[in-house]
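Listing S7. Sequence submitted for prediction.
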Amino acid sequence: MSDKEPSSFNDLSGSPDETPTRVEFKPLFSRAGAARDDAVAHETPDASAPSPAVTPPAGSSPAMNPRWRWAVVGVVTVLIVGLLGAAFILSQPKAGTPSTVARYAPSDTTVLVELRQDLPGDQRNLLAQFMSHFPGFADQAAFDTKIDETLESLFARSDGAVSWRDDIKPWFGGELGIFSSNISPSAGTPPSMTIALTVKAGQKPALESWLTPLLGSGWQQISYEGQALWSGQFPGSSERVSLTWSDEALLMSMRIEDLEEALDARADRSPGLADDQYFLQQLAPLHADRLGTFYFDGRALAQQMRDQMDRTLGVPGTNDAMVDAVAVRVLGEIRAEGDHMAVTTRTEQAANSNMPPLPANRSTNLAELAPRDALVYAEVRDVGQTIAFYVEQTLLPLASAGAPFDLSGIEAMLGVP
């Protein structure tokens, strides 16, 4: 080695303390024999031995074109993003499908009740099995006929002016809904209640042929957003109602304002209950085939009660427990299960509620103690804890205020000697 040659820093000792740090940029996707080629290139050849010819390993291919490398990277990235997006979407709470009548309910609906006379899915057979235990329904093959006879009898008992078979059945689509935004109106104000009945496809003329003759000279008609609204009294009735109909549903309400709100909710001119995320998410776990659905939102009612009941005992806070018990949202269903009827509820307490946790779902053997011919069986959980909680929450404000209070009524109710 001559003095003019640069110093060689190749050190094969492998000591990290003595080897300077070096960053190597290698291809993202290296060839199979690349590592071996690098090892050969860094070996110190023996000067006395001839340099052997390096033969590429069998099956090796030329280096991948940089454009193809980036194409592969792009495809892999798209797949990863797609998988992550799918996992995110699937992990979100699923939304249920609201019924036709629920789409007319406004966003501030307090109570909603739906009934399915069309008996969807398995409910016809399961309800027939259940009803076969009652007199008159033993023949399951004649179940539909028996239902028609029962409904006809109910209409005849009312006033006899309406026939189920002749007037209602030809156009009724099988879904009935009743909803209200205010179940505690002020004095002199009619209750907020709207009834929605679906119309069979193509049977609007049948509805009009029955309904139009009932709209006598005393009825008034107005137009709202291109929809005709009628207000008046049916023959033999003293109650004034408002109604409208379309190819989809017949709507009747005690107040024309409620009718307009229902139409706005259905046309997406204003938010409706079918847009409420809690309602949709709690609807999803319920069975698609059910006899009925019920919904209750007590938050607005609880605030009304709080304003009115603080004067009951004259001590603020004495009614908080009762008000908190009302300020809940409940969504449930009723289904026929062959040998019994099943009611399932899903409940949400207010976020700032002081109520104890809701009872957990669990099984007991109490039903085994009921006789085989029992008509109704209901099981209520944590009764003792609930009574103790309400008594404590009611008496604590009284004790803090030092107000005299007669406990004899509560003692008598609890059986205290």
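Caption to Listing S7: primary sequence and predicted structure tokens for the chain studied. The CA atoms of residues 16 and 22 lie 11 Å apart. Residues 66-91 form the longest helix (26 residues).
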